[in-house]
Design brief:
four-stranded antiparallel sheet; about 40% helix; 5 helices; alpha+beta; about 10% strand; flat
């Protein structure tokens, strides 16, 4: 991933290069990858489809949780909380020993893996909300 330096900072796409801004600064990346239709149908990408399916479930489960707790998270979550929560949800899904790979889900996974999750990595409270939930 390239970093933009200099006075002029670009946003948008020029040719096959996309310029964008993140909290890490102004970045640029080249367009690339494999055709979506090939990923959807080629048997060589079966594992990719399985991983994508589980990642999608993890993202949706994280969104359901964030929506349920929106009032609590309004001023307390850090900028990378969504990606950290999704990452942890993927671990919960991967702990599902009942369903086959690609069909695993949060319900049959180990939700206890969320214990200790901090919604704001910079402002730890000592005891996370999930730890309190599992004590009861």
């Amino acid at each position: 991933m390239a970093r933009q330096k200099g006075i002029i900072k670009l946003k948008g796409t020029i040719g096959d290069i996309t310029f964008y801004k993140t909290q890490d600064g102004h970045l640029a990346r080249e367009k690339g990858g494999i055709d979506a239709n090939r990923i959807k149908s080629d048997p060589a990408f079966q594992r990719t489809r399985e991983n994508g399916s589980e990642f999608g479930r993890a993202g949706k489960a994280g969104k359901v949780l964030r929506t349920a707790m929106r009032a609590l998270l309004l001023n307390s979550a850090d900028g990378r909380m969504v990606s950290r929560l999704t990452q942890q949800m993927v671990k919960v899904i991967q702990a599902d020993l009942i369903n086959e790979r690609g069909l695993r889900n949060v319900i049959d996974g180990e939700a206890e893996l969320l214990a200790g999750f901090e919604f704001n990595i910079r402002g730890k409270l000592g005891t996370s909300l999930f730890a309190l939930m599992w004590e009861q």
